[in-house]
Amino acid sequence: MSEKTIEGSGKGFLVLLLPISFVIIVLVTTWKFLLAFLVLLIGLNVWQQYQWQQWCQRVNPIFSQLVRENQGKITPVDLAIRGNFPGTQAKRYLDSKASEFGASILPAGDGEVYYFITGSILGNILDSSEPVKQLATPTVTKEARSLLAPPPSTEPVAVETEAELPPPVVTEEVKQNLAKQLIFGSLIQSELAKRLNVYSSTVYKRRNDPDFPEWTRSRDPDGIAWTFSEKTKEFFPLEENS
Question: Which CATH number covers residue 70?
């Protein structure tokens, strides 16, 4: 290598060595201050997390009450007004709850709406849903009916009635289960159907009929008449409503 090449390499090394040496000197002289600053940052972060957890514990009862009152639908404005704290904190809290419970977040105007599905809300949705409609029966012409008609028979033909479950065998366990149902004072559609020993769709079709109480009385094991409440989507003993 020529003398000029060696001299250029030496100058380049000195250019890199000077800032590296300066950084090392600064770290050696100030490492205590840097360590204290790092520990302070970690402690501040831990303290903020602790403060946030304590604040969430105080807001949890307000959140639970709003979920029950609004059928699972909450906005940051609702939570901020009820708890009397800033909207940014309310939104941060709802974001954490939505991530925890898997809630749906939908846009609404200039804000967002959080939907939390609870067991009672899901039960009301399933009870109020209509049963699957049967397909329309295809029309059959007289000519096709004559070809498909079976030969006349002298035996009496039994008239088909609505399909019902066979009469239950009333055991001691069944009696205990029926007694437990009456403790709560109200039943949902599926529970009443089991009590009356019919299909849930049968209860759904008959619940608004004028003779529904008498129909349930004739099928109830204890002879209790039941009535339907449109407001709560539940069934109550008629004796308690009278």
Answer: 1.10.10.10
